[in-house]
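Open question from group meeting: does this chain pack into something compact, or does most of it stay loose? Before anyone orders reagents, we agreed to write out a predicted structure and look at it together. Recording both the input and the output here so the notebook holds the full record.
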Amino acid sequence: MNAIRKWVDKFCYKHPRFGVPNLMRYFIIVSALVFIVGMMDRTYTFYSYLYFEPHLILRGQVWRLITWIFIPTNDIPWIIIELYFYYFLGSTLENVLGSGRFTVYYLMGVILNIAYAMIFMLVSGTTALITSMYLNLSLFFAYAVMFPENRVLLFFIIPIKVKWIAIIDAAFMVLNIILNIAAGNWIIAFLPLVAILNFFIFFGDHLSSSVRRSSLGAFNSNTIKFKSAARKYKRQQEQGAGRTVSGKVYRHKCAVCGRTDADNPELEFRYCSRCEGYHCFCMDHINSHVHFTE
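Structure tokens returned:
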């Protein structure tokens, strides 16, 4: 998984124009249009042309590979809340990861869902119903890992930290997996895990690191780590940091893109207190890198 993340980082660095800016805005607009048309169609014929059906896809209805993503809930009061919440999550993650990485993250989730459903059909001969529920749940899990202390209003009244909501969602997902295994539905049972595999690929190390910090005391752990990084940084500054690249002496080198202050004196560099060890990043990657764990 580290190799995949590093490949994504390098790919996005080499192709800075890759990605769909404001991706979730387009998702919300199309989903809203689908909802409006679906409400006017009392025969549900319109929705029948959007569901993911592997047999029909193999017969030429290739649009079903994408249209299933935009099928929203049929509940009018909740559709506005749902779409707004997904837009908020997606926009926040895009600001942190960058358009390229966020596009890869969401696209990877789509591809994993499709691949699992197609394999399910080939193995069992039946269709696995896939929806955007778990795909969008991977957005929430990513947000909860990055901003665990942020609060939302549960039922618009009760303030609760997002990490607790994420834990509850994860518990229900695990329960659903266990019940399906107990019922003998092995292939269906692991659909939720495959559907959010993009989350584990991008944020698995971050999640395990957050769990370790919580068990040891997040405040003390972060304080010690920050002081340790500060001491190392001070020693490096005092020693002159006599490392070289291409014959040039540099003090700072980005752990993601490899740029140094010798070749790019206009860049600013920072040190991440969340990473384990001593890692420097340029301003383009200080907020969008995958945290290192030892």
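Observations to bring back to the group:
Residues 99-124 form the longest helix (26 residues).
The chain has two domains: 2-216, 239-282.
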